[in-house]
Q: What sequence folds into this?
């Protein structure tokens, strides 16, 4: 299509050559626009031109042999809902007009019509179509802009949460990368439990990242202690769940953050902390994190043990099935371990961590 974009193309479909000629003459006398007139003497030919040419407006005769105007109109609207179509007829009955509009006509005109009327109608339809086109473009532009901003905000949020998670892990050099790995395993487990919604999976991932945020409020000397904790020290450590909840409960956009931090040390049989919740009383996200947390503790280097052999990990998980762990989630973890024949899923690489640690 080489025609000048400034040219408006009008397609006239009418089985009368006389009508085509007279309408073409009227349109060409209209000097407000550069108009190119295409014409077809049947509905079939008209449709073929419509499909192959860049048509801006259609003038369509209602009554034609074989394929009438309404049939042509329906075919046009199957593929194109935007191009204005003005239906022309000599019939004065109301139902003709109603039928044309209900099938997608944008205007209706009775024959015979004057040059003034036809050009005014064409101008009105083209201006309206152009306005709609501009409006759609503008909506599209705003949509793209909003999506871009949303993506940027999401990246900032994601990086900020990861940075926060690293801050927690830095308190204990032996568990570095723990939060990111727990987040990763939590997401995997949630997906295997049948969650497919990306937003929900991301919310669970972030809950995994921040599950230990409460450790910020526990002295590093206790967190880093490699010898047995006193009862008092253990009681302090346990406080990280409630401290974490206090920090995250205000994040209304993702309530899973607070729930994950608060309840990830609850046990399925009701022997955990801080509230001794039991079974399904424990929020799903916390039951997921509980398994992911334990798996990472067993499969990463800690101050008090090396990476555990896979068989030992499985044995401990089986021992905790139904007592410490939600049985369904624990079975999924065991299946994942069985699939991991080369034991690649241990202390997975996360982003680089600095070796220097804070002393507070
Ligand atoms: Fe924890």
A:
């Amino acid at each position: 299509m080489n025609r000048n974009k400034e040219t408006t193309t009008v397609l006239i479909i009418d089985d009368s050559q006389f009508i085509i000629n007279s309408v073409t003459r009227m349109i060409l006398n209209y000097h407000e626009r550069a108009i190119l007139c295409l014409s077809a003497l049947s509905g079939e030919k008209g449709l073929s031109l419509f499909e192959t040419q860049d048509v801006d407006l259609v003038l369509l005769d209602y009554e034609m042999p074989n394929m009438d105007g309404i049939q042509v109109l329906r075919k046009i609207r199957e593929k194109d809902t935007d191009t204005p179509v003005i239906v022309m007829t000599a019939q004065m009955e109301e139902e003709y007009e109603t039928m044309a509009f209900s099938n997608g006509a944008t205007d209706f005109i009775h024959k015979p019509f004057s040059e003034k009327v036809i050009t005014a109608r064409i101008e009105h339809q083209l201006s309206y179509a152009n306005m709609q086109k501009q409006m759609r473009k503008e909506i599209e532009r705003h949509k793209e802009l909003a999506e871009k901003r949303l993506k940027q905000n999401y990246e900032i949020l994601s990086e900020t949460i990861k940075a926060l998670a690293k801050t927690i892990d830095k308190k204990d050099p032996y568990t570095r990368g723990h939060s990111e790995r727990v987040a990763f395993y939590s997401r995997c487990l949630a997906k295997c439990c049948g969650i497919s919604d990306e937003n929900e999976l991301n919310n669970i991932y972030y809950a995994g990242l921040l599950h230990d945020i409460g450790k910020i409020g526990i002295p590093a000397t206790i967190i880093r202690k490699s010898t047995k904790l006193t009862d008092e020290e253990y009681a302090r450590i346990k406080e990280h769940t409630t401290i974490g909840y206090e920090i995250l409960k205000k994040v209304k956009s993702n309530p899973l953050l607070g729930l994950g931090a608060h309840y990830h040390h609850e046990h399925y049989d009701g022997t955990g902390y801080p509230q001794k919740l039991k079974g399904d009383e424990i929020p799903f996200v916390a039951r997921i994190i509980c398994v992911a947390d334990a798996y990472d503790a067993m499969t990463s280097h800690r101050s008090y043990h090396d990476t555990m052999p896979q068989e030992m990990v499985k044995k401990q998980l089986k021992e905790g099935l139904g007592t410490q762990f939600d049985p369904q989630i624990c079975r999924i973890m065991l299946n994942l371990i069985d699939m991991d024949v080369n034991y690649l899923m241990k202390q997975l690489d996360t982003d680089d961590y600095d070796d220097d640690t804070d002393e507070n």
User: Anything to note?
Assistant: The chain has a mean pLDDT of 90. Residues 211-212, 240, 264-265 surround fe (ii) ion (CB under 6 Å).
